[in-house]
Specification:
The protein is mainly beta. It is 3% helix and 44% strand. The chain is globular, with a radius of gyration of 17 Å.
Amino acid sequence: MAIPRFWREIPSRYNLIGTKCGSCGKVDFPPREICPDCGRKSLGKMHSFRLSGKGSLVTFAVVHDAPAQLEMQKPYVVGIFEMDEGVRLTSQLISVEPGDVKIGMRVQAVFRKLGQQGEAGVIHYGYKFRPSL
């Protein structure tokens, strides 16, 4: 099934889009209206910013049991990832065996199916991470 064009062309759909403060340069994800560092000085100065998708693993947990509706292969790894731009994201680490996961390993964001909803089969996509090649 092809993904409708209007869905594919939404800039934030397949990109990690955050914001960058025009006053202090702080990058945030998800996007913010006001910088948490500058506060009022940032009003009207927040700009869309595309993250590179590259970073490293800060910490992780191996999950051995998950709700059935998640359709996850068990065990799986969930981690906190620090992007090269300084923001931290929480997500699943894929394409690696749990025993091979190491703190500090380089990773790359990828977009994958997160789940499917209802009889219409609405598919939800989001970001996960895999080891950098």
